[in-house]
Specification:
The protein has 140 residues and is mainly alpha-helical. The protein is built from four helices and two strands, in the order H-H-E-H-E-H. The chain is globular.
Length: 140
């Protein structure tokens, strides 16, 4: 969910995101493809139950060919509204059988990625004494 300036900007972003997701799934050996979706709305002012339930209805219409999840501008509460319309959503609250907020897992992935890079580039297995800059970690 992002406050895009134009439809063209949203399409460019969703294609960029889906390409990255395709690579991510391939590297991980997952047979999940690389689908992504964007919602053109301001997450600070335009969130609503109706919006997310409508999106959930759309996801459901894809008959399991697409699963959605929390991402920029959304949270577990938003996934709960989507879950009211489709089971093809991950990251719902643990009380509904979901994994909840994915941020801790994303943060662990970032940390392990840093460790792998340090091992390959610096031949070190310890991060002590190193300084690392991270840009765009968001909620993580």
């Amino acid at each position: 969910m992002w406050n895009y300036e134009s439809t063209d900007q949203a399409i460019e972003d969703v294609l960029r995101l889906s390409k990255g997701m395709s690579y991510k799934a391939a590297v991980a050996g997952l047979n999940l493809g690389g689908g992504k979706a964007v919602i053109m709305a301001d997450p600070k002012t335009q969130k609503s139950e109706a919006l997310f339930r409508s999106f959930g209805t759309f996801v459901e219409s894809l008959n399991g060919r697409y699963f959605t999840a929390e991402d920029v501008g959304t949270d577990v509460n938003d996934m709960e509204y989507i879950f009211m319309e489709t089971g093809n959503v991950v990251g719902v609250a643990e009380m509904h059988g979901g994994s909840g907020d994915p941020s801790p897992w994303t943060a662990k992935g970032v940390l392990e990625g840093i460790r792998a890079c340090v091992e390959v580039k610096l031949s070190k297995d310890d991060l002590r004494g190193l300084t690392v800059a991270i840009q765009g970690a968001g909620h993580v």
